[in-house]
């Protein structure tokens, strides 16, 4: 067990696993060039290259898996993620990237928290801004088949109106949306990326939930090129990252991935140390 834990926390394994998953994310990004790609913090930031996504702080999302855990479902008014609604209205969709570990197909953040969010937003806007357009909105809850059971789906759906009422009664102001939101799921096992109608013909705004990591039964899989793939490697980076952050990883990606296993800890320490020195005021 100790050797398995050590292999799982190995810096070289983690960073090369992230790089492998990031390649899949880049493929998805090329499939939807007109849609912004947003990392779901914190794990998702490891897989989203800021030089190609162009994301800033306002273009991150924070959907917590705990808000989708069984029996703990909810629309959390402390982190309502309303800042991404104008982006959805402008671009008619987004790609939201996250990951999970240890044998799951996708994180609860994507399979339940985001679907809850979409359905609650739709119902709240329907209440606040009734019109001939919103009258025909599809406000159903959509969850990924085979991931969320029918029983759990029904239990979540029974609570949506209450959460929508809470949002309507809050001090938050919701922007105009011309179409309802709808989650769509993509994982590395997806054989064909979904295609969407032209913007003018769509019946909904897609919130593409991209789970970056391959589903591995025991969470680890040895690769021929000298590293062990760790599912969801971006998770809990405080335990393995030696102070490395997603920003530092992407700024030094080529250097990091070309370093040997033996030399990698030394390189990462130097990168982290240099970044901290830059933060120290001079004079």
UniProtKB/TrEMBL annotation:
<dbReference type="GO" id="GO:0005737">
    <property type="term" value="C:cytoplasm"/>
</dbReference>
<protein>
    <recommendedName>
        <fullName>Rit1 N-terminal domain-containing protein</fullName>
    </recommendedName>
</protein>
<dbReference type="GO" id="GO:0043399">
    <property type="term" value="F:tRNA adenosine(64)-2'-O-ribosylphosphate transferase activity"/>
</dbReference>
<dbReference type="InterPro" id="IPR033449">
    <property type="entry name" value="Rit1_N"/>
</dbReference>
<dbReference type="Pfam" id="PF17184">
    <property type="entry name" value="Rit1_C"/>
</dbReference>
<dbReference type="InterPro" id="IPR007306">
    <property type="entry name" value="Rit1"/>
</dbReference>
<dbReference type="GO" id="GO:0019988">
    <property type="term" value="P:charged-tRNA amino acid modification"/>
</dbReference>
<feature type="domain" description="Rit1 N-terminal">
    <location>
        <begin position="4"/>
        <end position="272"/>
    </location>
</feature>
